[in-house]
Design brief:
Layout (H helix, E strand, L loop, with lengths): L1 E2 L8 E6 L7 H10 L7 E3 L4 H4 L4 H11 L19 H15 L2 E8 L2 H8 L6 E4 L8 H19 L3 H11 L6 H12 L4 H9 L10 H11 L11 H13 L9 H10 L19 E4 L9 H4 L10 E2 L12 H7 L10
Parallel strand pairs: 2-3, 2-4, 4-5, 5-6, 6-7
Antiparallel strand pairs: 1-3
Helix pairs in contact: 6-9, 6-12, 8-10, 8-12
């Protein structure tokens, strides 16, 4: 989808990917407008497969049943592969749009998993602004472990009543969670990108007057697994599962427990990452990577490869406030694209 200003024909276009997998074009348009990128720039957005070909009702019903209880998470589920991120299709969608408009790319902005997609879709000549990027490669066991470690540590620090908090965290690490503990684990995962909500959830682990109401717990648990209030699954869940499984592989690592196990079993990746999934080429790239010291979705250990050995990208000075937060130095950079990307 191209967002063009009407005062001139687009000649240089900004490719923007606000992340996901599982983000709708409508939501992406809202975020692009909120960030002030449009109408200041002509913007190109690429939609996901689930919006073009929605998963069948039988598939979504099966997912709803699978996600309802922790004990059902290891059962069979719908194969997400048809709705996975396809690098070649994404790249062709970008190139076809540019050809039709006789336009070129000014720069590319990728937030969270959007960083992977724009880095794969653009040549080295296009500068990148990557904000709290998902890891460029790896297996989901490592991704889940890093995320679970960060979530657990942050929860233990925030919840306040040490003994009660420790007991609850041990409950969340149990191999067989009851429904409320399962919902609590999902609530922690769902609130990871919002520091205020995460702190509220973490403090509820100690119980007492700060405990979350059942309705709040259910709402956050459903948010983590793309479900409506009645438990029915949203179609974008298949994009989330397919994109994540296709990029990083899946499965529960031997001995994994706690939030790591919950994360992996919710995804229920049917196979390892695709053997033909290309590595993101980072040598020769130009641009800035913006990270947060308080990112519980992609902790620093997961974002580090973007600016590691062999990468032409540089870590921007300063930090953004949290996962997918476009503030601080990131906001300044987006206000002055593409020239601002030379100064990180």
């Amino acid at each position: 989808m191209a967002l063009s200003r009407t005062d001139h024909p687009p000649a240089r276009v900004l490719l923007v990917d606000v992340g996901g997998p599982g983000t709708s074009v409508e939501n992406a348009v809202e975020q692009v407008s909120e960030l002030g990128l449009w109408p200041r720039y002509d913007v190109l957005l690429v939609g996901e497969a689930w919006e073009v070909t929605p998963p069948p009702a039988s598939c979504l019903t099966g997912e709803s049943s699978r996600l309802a209880h922790y004990r059902a998470l290891s059962g069979p589920s719908c194969d997400p592969a048809p709705w996975a991120f396809d690098p070649a299709a994404y790249r062709e969608a970008v190139q076809a749009t540019l050809r039709a408009r006789h336009a070129t790319l000014l720069a590319a902005v990728g937030i969270s998993f959007g960083a992977v997609r724009v880095a794969e879709a653009t040549p080295a000549s296009v500068p990148l602004a990557l904000i709290t990027p998902a890891p460029p490669s790896g297996d989901f066991g490592a991704v889940a472990a890093a995320r679970a470690t960060a979530l657990t540590a942050a929860a233990a620090k925030a919840c306040g009543v040490a003994a009660a908090c420790a007991r609850t965290l041990r409950t969340l690490a149990s191999p067989t969670l009851d429904d409320r503990a399962y919902a609590t684990a999902l609530a922690l995962i769902a609130s990871a990108a919002d520091p205020t909500t995460f702190t509220r959830v973490a403090r509820s682990l100690a119980g007492g007057s700060r405990a979350l109401a059942d309705g709040d717990l259910a709402r956050l648990a459903y948010a983590a697994t793309f479900r409506y209030a009645d438990g029915a699954v949203l179609p974008n869940l298949l994009s989330y599962r397919g994109g994540t499984c296709g990029r990083y592989g899946g499965g529960v690592r031997p001995g994994a427990g706690g939030l790591e196990s919950t994360l992996a079993r919710v995804l229920s990746c049917p196979q390892a990452g695709s053997a033909d999934t290309p590595e993101v080429t980072l040598s020769g790239r130009r641009g800035c990577v913006f990270v947060s010291d308080h990112d519980l979705v992609t902790p620093r250990a997961l974002t580090a490869p973007w600016t590691g050995a062999g990468s032409g990208l540089r870590l921007a000075a300063g930090r953004v406030s949290g996962h997918a937060r476009v503030d601080g130095t990131a906001a300044t950079a987006l206000a002055g694209l593409p020239g601002s990307l030379a100064g990180c």
